[in-house]
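S1.2 Input.
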Amino acid sequence: QHFSALASLVTTRYSTKEILDFIQNYSAVFSTIISKLPTVFSLISIVLIALVSFAIIPFSILILWVFIGLGITALFFKKTQEIYVQADKAKATFKQYYLLLQEIENRKFSSAKLQEKQQIIQSEKLQASVIFKQFSKILDAFDQRNNLLIAFVGNAFFLWDLRNAVQVEIWITNYKHTVKKWFEVIAFFDAQNSLANFQYNHPEYTFPKVQKQDAIIKAVGLGHPLLNSEKRIDNDLKIYDQEFFIVTGANMAGKSTFLRTVSLSIVMANVGLPVCAKSYIYSPVKLITSMRTSDSLADDESYFYSELKRLKFIVDTIDKDDYFIILDEILKGTNSKDKAIGSKKFIEKLVSSKSTGIIATHDVSLCELATDFSEIKNYYFDAEISNDELYFDYLFKKGVCKNMNASFLLKKMEII
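S1.3 Output.
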């Protein structure tokens, strides 16, 4: 819980990818001599200040030294400015991430996997949290260049900008090849912690039981986790390997919600989350869907062409591996005749691919495919009109929908 609290406070303007791109692709710009210059210059400055204080040398020499310091700063301004602009993007991330690393380092884990991940951030001489904190302090010091007093006095006597730019460069050179691993460890623990919190907050959900049998999914009381549990209607589902369900139904009867419920259950099961169901037995499978497409004026793409591209992607993808396919009303962007012909041909192609899936449609003519292909089963969601009112039971039933409601709704809303 403490890790989650810390992680929730992380607010960064730049992604870890941007930060890693800068760190991993950085090439040193300062020579060894230049890297040592700020230290040597600072020592000389301290000596000169002491000599002036004891009136051993005239004050004018110190004034000359100030101009030399500012001149060197100006000479390297372009390089230090470039480093500052890029490094400043990482400041907030490192300041907050070192706390997360500290939390991971201080925990004792019994899991071998968690111990393995913990070991990654303890592989250097110093702990990763200490290394991140060091970099955070360097970036904080570098940021002081925006303070006019520091900018003048610091650069005049200690080459402040150059010193911090060199410190950034040394840190990056030492750790550029390990930062990505440490970021990945933080992301891993954040993900695992999020999954654990989800399970803790939903004790009524059930963990999937994995089996390598004919049934891809056997679920009892499967529901959508984002719907109110008091109003939600749960359904049973049993679908075997290489089967395709064609789901028909009236508008608003629950087809799309059911598709999302099944999709989400597969995703949740695949990542190890408990599923919103009384029982859930499944064979791990990859998921591919086409549920929402849109046109693009910028890319000069029509709605129909966007959908065709998605369907083409699905065909090419399922040719390489087994997938569970979920499609919601395919070929929406064309006329009814073309849609029916094209949809039937496409479903036939899916069936021949030996994949498994569910397809929702308003076109009941597609249900005729069940007579030609034993792999295809028909299911539906129903709507009932009673006393001039429309009622839904949201139950997943075997068969073909007989009651469509578009005309009724148009009349009910006085559109026609």
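S1.4 Remarks. The mean pLDDT is 87.
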